Amino acid sequence: MSELTKNEELILLLIWRLKNDAYGVPLRQKFSEITGKMLNYGALYNILYQMERKGLVISTESKPEAKKGGRRKILYSVTKQGLISLKKAQEIQKMAWQGISDYAFDENSNE
Amino acid sequence: MNNRPPKIAGWLLKRLYFYNLKYALFEDLSEEYMNLYESKGRLHARLWFWAHTTAAIFESIKLSIYRGIIMFKNYLKVTLRNILKHHLYSLINISGLAIGITCAILIMLYVDHETGYNKFHENADNLYRVNEYFNVTHSVLNIPRTVTLTGPTLKEEYPEIIDFARYYYMSNTLLSFEGIGYYESSILAADRSFFDMFSFPLLKGDVDEAFKDPNSILIDEDTAEKYFGNDDPIGKILNVETRGSFTVRGVLQNVPAQSNIQFKIVVPWEYLKNFSWYRERWDDHLYYTYIMLLENVEEGAFEEKIRDVFREKSGGDNVDLHLESLKDIHLHSEISTEGSNNIGYIYFLTILGVFILLIACMNFMNMTTARSSQRAKEIGMRKVVGGEKKNIIIQFLAESVFISFLSLLVALILLKLVLPYFSNFTGKELSLSLTGDPYMFIGIIAVSLITGLIAGSYPAFYLSSFRPVTVLKGTLKSGYRGSLFRRILVIFQFTGSVILIASTITVYSQIEYMLAKNLGWNKEHLVYINFRGDSHVYSDVLKNELTMNPAIRSVATSYSDPARFRGGTSGIDWAGKDPELSVNIRYNFIDFDYFDTVEYELTKGRKFSRDISTDRESAFIVNESLARIMGDENIIGLDIEFWGFIPGRVIGVVKDFHFNSMHNEIQPMLFKILNTEATTRFAIVKVEPAGLGSTLEYIADTWKKVVPDYPLVAGFVDEEVERMYQDDRKTGKMLQSFAGLAVFIGCMGLFGLVSYAAEKRKKEIGIRKTLGASISLVVHIIMKEFIFLIFIANAIAWPAAYIIMKNWLNTFAYRIEMGPAIFLLSGLIILVIALLTVIYQSVKAAIANPVDSLKYE
Fold first, then answer.
1. ipTM confidence
2. Is A42 close to B55, i.e. CB distance below 8 A?
3. pLDDT > 90 in chain B, percent
4. A46 and B59: CB-CB below 8 Å?
5. What pTM did the predictor assign?
6. Which helix (H) or strand (E) element contains residue B326?
7. What are the tens digits of pLDDT across the range B130-147?
8. Is the dihedral of CA B694, B696, B702, B708 positive or negative?
């Protein structure tokens, strides 16, 4: 199985965190909060589309909201497959960072 | 206030966004739009919405392209895997298609070349040749030339004509520079306007300057190099035999191969006025004349107008004037002239090319459908895991297109190898430059693409319609529908092959027939010597010298050689002739030894005799055809007037003989002893077959001794006769090679099919063998089916070939009858070749050890 890209990993994590409210708008907001980068909707949905094809996430349609003009949402949730991928990504992350202290990149660390 | 997002953007999004997420996307965008609308205002929100819509559409396009590439890579991978896995079939498919594409491209190049004639002239659309149609009885006489006065008269009387240009092919002329001379046969004497109307550019010099002096000469690059090497030719002097000299005033670009007007040298029209025979009158139909019409003049209507001009002006010959567009001259001409071609031939070749390509395509279809059960499992699996029918069709089309492009690569290499031979064979400079000619490039790509699509279409739709359940349960037999289709294809292939073989045999038998047919004279061991320029003054001395050699049986001199009668005229009158009757006859002026040298047979009367004094001046011999027209009974002694001023009597009738190609009927002919009417142009030498080499040497030595200033021009008469059938031979060779290829491709397909059939019945054969069936029985079982198909193919092919070849044979006045032998032979050939193919495969299956095929049961 191919590895997750950085963006995929982030979105997958966000879906997992947002639990029952994981749909387009909050996903995009959270993404830019964390990374400081703006992601346009087209790119976001491309990522979601690809991940769904790979079986990492699954989408369900919510019931319309009770309030006036309430909308239907496409809610995403992480599949088992997705969780395995996330775990693997985390492990790679850990392995790669192992033995490097948090202060290693401080400005005076070279002294 | 309207707080809905912009409608157009929403609509665009729904139309152009590819994935089924557009609903979710749109809702998300709307939600944020509303938030922005409240916090930042309408304009900001709208701009934002538009920006994101556009971005989303772009992203979706990007993704679909990316997925397309991935899909393509996947198709390619499966294709390559299939090609390698079934390498025997792939080899047959690819080589068959490659040969088919090679043939198609060769024919495409040839057709492209032939249809491109005369198009390089800027005024090509408005140029017309003036042709003459003689109203004569007993033969058709249409010539592409007219008289000197036609051009100027037409221009004067019809304002529709912008200009006219005449040219005249000068007879062989010996030109020399500083003692080195060559015979030049492509010299035109042309009007100044020739260079305005046609696009024959000058590389050096000036046309106006040149045409001021009748002794100017314009030569092409090749000729310039031949005489002057790298020196500047301008201003150099070329000597003309004993008659003076020309000054080189210009260098012409070599005339393109795709021009019907071919020449190497041009001299001004004024030069012709030096000759005593040049007259400006309504006679001497020797001059090619072209006119240039105004843009909007309608050809047909204008042709009507000028039709009677000649008759009205001349009061002489009964001639209609006709126009022929320059663009039509090469392929559509009603007058056969040198170098012209027939549009029928082009159509025939095009059909042949398409046919061979079709045969190759059919091989491909055959093999793929035949192997369908092998691939059925793959298709079943694909369907079960969610492969749509569309994807499977695309997969198969992609495979066949890929294979056809692979074949194209092989074909391009093949082309590189065979093109020189093909050019040589057709006598046309053909070359394939993919980069230089975008149309050719697109054409070739299109041919391969279409080939791939056609070849893949049937398998694609046939295989994609399999139902996964039957396939995976293993109950699928390659169905009746599939095998019927395969049978039809095999029949088609073999029908075509039999037609081609039968045609080839017919063409060759006709050529054999023409060469072997008794001509009515003896063409063997005859050498002709051509007296060019003024060399004829030595003819008597030469004849005396030659007859002294015992290896030379006889020598005759004449105006024309026996293989080509130059002279044609309607100037003949006889006692009791119907004044309405106009007869065109061929004539030759000969000496007393001519009849014995070429061995004409006489049916009535006697030959010319030296001992009878009137024979020299006033005796004629006619052939049977002319005798029939004049009235057979009292032919001997009939009074004749030739050319209006040579009276005489018929003393004999010669048996009809062939002198030109057997496409034509034997024409009426007349002989007279050469006196003062014309010049001696030929010596005809009958040599002993023994010691031919030294005799020829003797002839050459004697010529050098007797005729000092002129190079010897000589040859064998029988070779001249054979040359008349060159075109027919080419047709024969062309048919032969294409027939060979068609049979070869067809057999490759058969080979593949039989090996498949044997493979499929491996178990049956194994069981039969364990139960005691002999090898020959097994072979018989496999062959039965294919022999049946070949019989059907023959049954269709024979009548078709008969009709086609009957049409071809009708172009000959003297032709063979097509007997059953031709058809039986071609049927037999195809049967033997097919059987060899089938037997090889079926024997292989039959001698296989049944243990191998049955051990897994």
1. 0.75
2. yes
3. 24
4. yes
5. 0.70
6. none
7. 998 887 766 667 888 898
8. negative
Q: Do B24 and A73 touch (CB under 8 A)?
A: yes
Measure CB to CB from residue B52 to each of A23, A40, A49 and give the nearest one.
A40
Q: Which of B27, B52, B59 sits opposite A71 (nearest CB)?
A: B27
Strand partners, B227: none
**Each residue of B562-576: pLDDT tens digit?**
887 766 777 888 888
Which pair of structure tokens corresponds to residue B699?
């002839």
- Whole-number Cα distances in Å, B634 to A66, B109, B136, B194, B654: 125, 59, 24, 52, 15
> Is A48–B21 a contact, with Cβ atoms under 8 angstroms apart?
yes
Q: Does residue A41 register a pLDDT over 80?
A: yes
* Residue ranges of chain B whose CB lies within 8 Å of a chain A CB: 19, 21, 23-25, 27-32, 51-52, 55-60, 62-63
Contact flag A50-B63 (C-beta cutoff 8 Å): yes
Using an 8 Å CB-CB cutoff, list chain B residues near A48. Answer: 21
Please give the CATH number for the structural domain made up of A6-64+71-96. Answer: 1.10.10.10
Best of B28, B48, B61, B63 to mutate (most A CBs within 10 Å, chain A) = B28
Q: Across the interface, do A45 and B27 touch by the CB < 8 Å criterion? A: no
**Which of A40, A54, A75 to mutate: most B Cβ within 10 Å?**
A40
Query: For residue range B70-96, what is the model confidence (pLDDT) as tens digits?
Result: 877 877 888 888 788 878 778 888 888
Nearest CA in chain A to B20: A49
pLDDT at B1: 46
Tell if the CB–CB gap between B59 and A24 is shorter than 8 Å: no
In B328-429, which residue ranges form alpha helices assigned H by DSSP?
A: 343-370, 372-384, 389-426
Comparing alpha-carbon positions, the chain A residue that sits nearest to B48 is: A40
The CA distance from B418 to the nearest CA of chain A, in Å, is: 50
Instruction: Using CB atoms, pick whichever of A25, A46, A48 lies closest to residue B31.
Output: A25
Residue for token digits 């896995």?
B85
Closest to B624 in 3D by CA, of B635, B616, B637, B609? B635
* Helix pair angle (B7-16, B22-40), 10° resolution: 160
pLDDT in tens, B475-518: 555 555 567 777 888 888 888 888 888 888 888 888 888 878 88
The 3-state DSSP class for residue B350 equals helix
Q: In angstroms, rounded to a whole number, what is the distance separating the alpha carbons of residues B581 and B170?
A: 33
DSSP assignment of B141-177 equals EEES-B-TTHHHHHHHH-TTEEEEEEEEE---EEEEE
Give residue B741's Cα distance to chain centre.
18
The domains of chain A are located at: 6-64+71-96
Hey, is B429 helix, strand or coil? coil
Q: Which residues of B314-337 are buried (b: 16+ CB within 10 A; e: fewer)?
A: beebebbbbbbbbbbbbbebebee
Q: Which residue has the higher pLDDT, B684 or B745?
A: B684
List for chain A the helix, strand, coil content (%; round to 5): 55, 10, 40
Burial B406-429 (b: 16+ CB within 10 A, else e): bbbebbbebbeeebeebbeebeee
**B330: phi then psi, degrees, rounded to nearest 5:** -75, -45
What is chain B's mean pLDDT, rounded? 84
Name the minimum distance, in Å, from the CA of A107 to any CA of chain B. 40
